[in-house]
Amino acid sequence: MRIRSFTANRCRFVAMKNSQKTACFILVIVWILIFCKIGLNKTSSRNFVSQVVITTTDRPQTTPKTSSDAQIILVVAYMRTGSTLLGEILHQIPGSFYLFEPLRTLENTRADAIEANRTSFTLEYLFKKPQQFKISSYDGVIHSVMKSLLTCSLDELPSDILTDRHHSVFIDSLNYFEDCSSKHIADLKSMHTILNQTQTTNSTNTITKLRLNDNLRKCLLPYTASCRNSSAVVMKFIRLRMRHAIRLLSDFPKLKIVHLVRDPRGIIDSQMRTGFLKSGTAIAEECHAIASDLVFTKYLMENKPSAIKLIQYEDFAEEPLKMLKELRQFTGLNFGADIEQFIFNKTSAAKDNGEYTTGRKNSTETAYKWRTHLDFQLAVDIEKACAVSNSVLGYLPFHSKESLKNILVSPRRRTNVTHSLITNINF
Fold it and tell me: What PANTHER family does this protein map onto (predicted)?
């Protein structure tokens, strides 16, 4: 009954165009696939599927036109999986426009609202009034923001995304926008404060506001042009899930998705050591995210393999040049002439450059360093929580503290992950 209702609602909405009918068909099939195959109990399945269902209010009424003919590459990953390094490597594609975690401030805004027990959150913009959104509509907000990003419509983005300090910290393609815009934004805020206090407006204030807005647009203009003239638009995420990414394919059919995974024991250990693991439920949430993402990755492997590339961090750390070759084949793009030297400098640096940077003295050693200090019982807990995803990714359980610490005991089974995932009935 639920499937019939969902199908009827979606297909009535997309009855206008063939491309929209195709999108409807794909989403219905994915819905049924998850309902029938994911290895969760019935209640968990329903909760999971409810996140995937796209309501008619979230769905775009028209298919957007990409402002750039660039190849679009999205890295979907998890915190502490080497995604920053992968993003930096993809940024070496000549003429690429690269953004580091453009959803970071958006997720923080939502998280703050949840922590404050609010049911909605407010986003501010540079060129339009603030807008309020229900927390329950968050997936729809992500979809809207992603469309603005992928069409290079930077002026439509929430202001926090544009001015995030991480653009300059991690040197992406918006790294100097804050320098140009900060004074104009401060002047606009001061003017708004004065207007709110006096409750008056006049032609001088209006002209001043228009001038400040014009200055902001001039700050943004070169970045918009850079995006639209780029050879590749590259973005890396730990806050974008595969269910979000797959929705974008109906609007951006040439989209390429790199799904980056890592041994969850290494993920959790690294998050603990860097102070990011704060919740007692974080392990279960991380494992659920990986398993849920693999459902969509499997679907693309079966139905649109040209759109998906699954990479294991350990393979990348051990054989970076082999992974580079595979990335070239997958993206169809050439990297810069110095790319191999760039990778060598990152994976065989003179010393480790710190927890939040990407240079490593020995990338292979770094990939398995978690074994030297991870508590055995915690390793067992992670293995149990991530058993479903570990079974297809080849991450093996340890049966004793000694085997965990013994580097001669392999923590993984090297396998054809694509074949394992496609043939596994739990996904």
Answer: CARBOHYDRATE SULFOTRANSFERASE, LD35051P-RELATED
